Amino acid sequence: MINVTKPFLPPQEEYDHYLQGIWSRKWLTNNGPLVNELELTLKNYFGVPHLFYVTNGTIALQLAIKALDLQGEVITTPFSFVATTSSIVWEGCTPVFVDIDPATYNIDPALIEAAITPQTTAILATHVFGNPCAAKEIGSIAAKHKLRVIYDAAHAFGTQYQGRSVLHQGDISTLSFHSTKLFHTIEGGALITHDAGLANKIAHMRNFGFHGPETFQGVGINGKNSEFHAAMGLCNLKYVQQILDRRHELTEVYHRMLKSLQVGKPFLHPNAGFNYAYYPVVFESEAVLLRMIDAMHGVYVYPRRYFYPSLEKLSYVRPGQEMQVSSDIASRVLCLPLYHELSVEEVKMICRAILRAERY
Ligand SMILES: *Cc1c(COP(=O)(O)O)cnc(C)c1O
């Protein structure tokens, strides 16, 4: 059976080595030495000034919205994982959708200004499938209208934009280190910012607001992650370049094998370094997509409909926001299996199943 993804695991001895340290220190959580080491290593890896390791990518989004004191309307993309929208609602704000660019599948910067109202406070955009948003355009719109910008960068570990990590964009970027992601810590996430004031706020907010053992700086929540999770991150980081290279190689095999297939693929920003986090293909119609899924199930391959449905269809958002491009792409898009352990032979087998189904 081949699923859309399979988590990477390091050699067990390498994890055991970290466990021995945890056992001897008996420091399991609360900003322990491995959490600190992971944060420092990730900061160096991305070249960013402030990075906070938290429990998951969803709490990272919620903390980002809270740290920026957002209220009212938040402009966002309908083509993302549900957490991008649900975090806005969870924090008491109203998501206002702006349709995606049919070429990149990211929020269309040309449509943002028309959606701005006096209630708008921020833009929350996703670098979907690891393809960077039009951050320059989004940044100028935000500056002109005094809006804050959050990037949901859950897919963008290793993505470059203008010669450096895409995590430099916006007021805050958030990452997810869930097991299904390119780099994972079992569960986990992070917030990245350039702003020292925001960094100070986030540091307090993720630890109940504690400022010293008996005093508090504002309201907080528990967003801390454990030494065990950080240990997995430290193990996996050693392999991240291999993981990126392997995905690149498998992506090229897909490209070669599926050259003749009539499918759409996201246009990759020419100024970007892509991380090959996903292999999305957009079929001619939903009927073709369903036929392809059937054909793949026939050979025990289980791709996923990332992302379906388009998020304006959620029951808890303002009704009547029609997102033509996003709902059209969402109805036809499929992510093919892509993970470190997947073999070239398996990719070829998947492609052959697709090509057969296309003909008959
Ligand atoms: C995975 C993901 C999240 C949520 O991250 P978790 O770590 O699972 O909470 C948020 N946004 C996007 C785009 C994701 O893919």
UniProtKB/TrEMBL annotation:
Pfam families: DegT_DnrJ_EryC1. The keyword Transferase applies. Coiled coil: none annotated. The keyword Transferase applies. Keywords: Aminotransferase, Pyridoxal phosphate, Transferase. It comes from the Bacteria. Belongs to the DegT/DnrJ/EryC1 family. This is DegT/DnrJ/EryC1/StrS family aminotransferase.
